[in-house]
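Action item from last meeting closed. Structure (66 res):
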C-alpha cells in the first residue's frame, strides 16, 4: 500500500458523515504507520469541527427561543 490517502477514505467529510470518516482514517493510520500521526490529527480536527458546529447550532437555537 502506498503512503497516499485514497479519495474514497475521505468522501464521508463531504457527506457530513464525520463518524464514518474518522473510523476509516483510524483504520488507514493503523495500516500505514508513516501517516499515523497525521491521520490522528485529521480525526481530531474532524471530530472537533463537528462538535463546534453542533455547539454553535445549539447556541443559535437558544437565542431564538430566548
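Sequence:
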Amino acid at each position: 500500500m502506498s503512503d497516499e490517502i485514497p479519495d474514497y477514505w475521505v468522501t464521508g467529510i463531504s457527506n457530513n458523515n464525520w463518524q464514518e470518516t474518522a473510523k476509516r482514517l483510524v483504520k488507514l493510520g493503523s495500516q500505514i504507520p508513516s501517516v499515523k500521526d497525521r491521520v490522528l490529527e485529521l480525526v481530531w480536527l474532524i471530530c472537533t469541527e463537528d462538535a463546534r458546529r453542533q455547539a454553535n447550532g445549539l447556541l443559535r437555537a437558544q437565542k431564538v427561543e430566548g
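Note appended to the action item: The helical segments are 11-14, 18-31, 36-65.
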